[in-house]
Design brief:
Strands 2-3-1-4-5 form a 5-stranded parallel sheet, with helices on both faces. It is built from 9 helices and 5 strands. The chain is of the alpha/beta class. Bound molecules: adenosine monophosphate. Adenosine monophosphate binds next to helix 2 and helix 3.
């Protein structure tokens, strides 16, 4: 990786707007956007081994096991040896994933520069995901019980990462409610100050 610039973990519960915001940020900062959810969905659509392994977990709103997810993420990063930096969207989601990401980036003489979390109240998340489910074609957005399970798992397994990055002074919380543009501006303020 030549002269890495910024590696950003875009964080927040399902429906917080990570994917939407990542599409703007990757253009502006010329970063590679890796959404682990998108990679899994691509593999499910193409009926690969990885997709077949991930599907059962995703349909229930459960996390795909770390052993599968970490290897997949590493392979995605390796596809972009000349990247200026990455936006990680939906990864890491567990402490082991966060440690694996640290080790991977360290091996490339770089690091996570910031975890930026989009903060959105649970009721708004459920509303947004049900709305998205009308058009996204995602089975995990179509069912309120699965949506609530994904949010529950976020608090059980993923939210602890806030402390992981806070202890390294890399955590930044941003209000994730408002117009798409106003939220993008809040994110850019954080990134520009890094
Ligand atoms: P997302 O598109 O980020 O909402 O992810 C959709 C689903 O993909 C999640 O509910 C998980 O089943 C799976 N998934 C995505 N990223 C990860 C990850 N980092 N670790 C484990 N499972 C993941």
């Amino acid at each position: 990786m030549k002269r890495p610039c910024k590696n950003i973990v875009l964080f927040g519960p399902p429906g917080a707007g990570k994917g939407t915001q990542a599409t703007f940020l990757k253009e502006k900062y010329e970063l590679i956007h890796i959404s682990t959810g998108d990679v899994f969905r691509f593999n499910i659509k193409n009926q690969t081994d990885l997709g077949n392994q991930a599907k059962a977990y995703m349909d229930k709103g459960l996390l795909v096991p770390d052993s599968i997810t970490i290897n997949m993420l590493a392979a995605e990063v390796e596809k972009h040896p000349h990247a200026k930096g990455f936006i990680f969207d939906g990864f890491p989601r567990t402490q082991d994933q966060a440690k694996a990401l640290d080790a991977l980036l360290q091996s490339k003489k770089t690091t996570v520069h910031a975890m930026i979390a989009l903060e959105v109240a649970d009721d708004i998340l459920v509303e947004r995901l049900l709305e998205r489910g009308k058009t996204s074609g995602r089975p995990d957005d179509a069912n309120e019980a699965v949506i609530r399970n994904r949010i529950k798992i976020y608090y059980q397994e993923t939210d602890v990462l806030k402390a992981y990055y806070q202890s390294q002074n890399k955590y930044f919380g941003v209000d994730g409610v408002g117009t798409i543009l106003s939220i993008t501006e809040r994110l850019c303020d954080v990134i520009d100050a890094l």
